[in-house]
Sequence to fold (416 residues):
Amino acid sequence: MSRTLHPLLDAIAPIDPRPLKLQVSNSALAGLHRGYPWLYAERIKEESRPGKPGELAVVFDGKRRFVAVGLHDPLSPIRMRVLRANKPGPIDAAFFAERIARALERRKPLPGTNTDGYRLIHGESDGMPGFVVDRYAGTAVVKLYTHAWLPHLRLCLETLLEQQPLERIVLRLSRGMMQHPEYLYALEDGMILYGDPITETLSCLENGLRFEVDPVRGQKTGFFLDQRDNRARVERLARGRRVLNVFSYNGGFSLAAARGGALEVTSLDQSGPALESSQRNFALNAHVPAVAAARHLTIEDDAFKAMAELVRQGKKYDLVIIDPPAFAVRRSQVKDALVAYGRLAHLGVSLLAPGGDIVLASCSSPVSPEDFRRTMCEAAARAGRPLKNIEETSHALDHPLDFADSRYLKCLFAKA
Ligand code: SAH
Fold:
């Protein structure tokens, strides 16, 4: 086993130790004072010099007082990601070590023998903006959202390895980063930065259920870790029921429902490989009697089309879970997204047997919890099945919400 970091990390040019000095608009100053973690390019009035990705930039107010220091990124509309605000201090090895230690400390209540798939570092909300680390047993997946981390990557990974024993580190790069390959120092999405190549299927445990994980080709970093608590809730609702899991991906909610005692679970997804993965995950957990006892069916089709067809056939389920991909990533897409969510809620309640439960999730960050809830309630009422006993849940503990924009996941549990 190779126990050193990938040599390409040594080829990343070190940063100029003199930070850039920035003058910014008053509204940006107010945001930074409040702890907002991003500074957009259009808010910058003056830059002391042109900067390179990953250099430090310091913002001063009109009276030359320190406001914030962060990582500069000339390639992104988010020109600076804040590391420290209101109180100056060094950005050095000790700083990164402290941030990483604090993030790991927050997850202390979480892992145990039952869960070894969880988020170690959640970017902005853990004081490491644009830097995400998910852990799947001994493999960590580091997902970067800005080139600005590259000059600091070696130091951060060494620090992470000191604090958290790991067998392997996989690098994932955001789409925005891959648009500027000339700044990647030959690093590639999916590269192994530490440890051995992946030769067998990796897996992780979530509350004792085993899931296969593909950190290189899988969605996000391989698994939707943010739904852990909601899956546990679904498990508690599933006993003796017929369950429909729409947008099932690799079957996270399906397995939870099966272990909870569901008689039958239908996973619906348009992706054949995702459904095959869900079937393998049922097989991986066949030693759990309730999982072995539940009948698992799959439907490979577009969710809107397939649900309309199930309604036409007069199918009924006792528990329907609808957890689609993000329909909106920009504000301009919110209106269309709400229409789509409304259609799904309408179809979902139409498939519910009397007294059934519905779970509606949205991971579209520009869609507010209020708009989501209202749209879901209106759509269900229009279908003649108003939502009752609504409970709203959000992110699990390893996806902390330390600033407003970081809230993306919304989930409603209701009867209809
Ligand atoms: N609920 C899942 C995560 C969903 S990810 C979990 O708990 O892990 C979104 C899934 O929606 C993907 O698997 C994708 O293949 C599927 N998908 C996207 N658009 C779809 C559509 N129109 N119809 C059916 N499935 C779709």
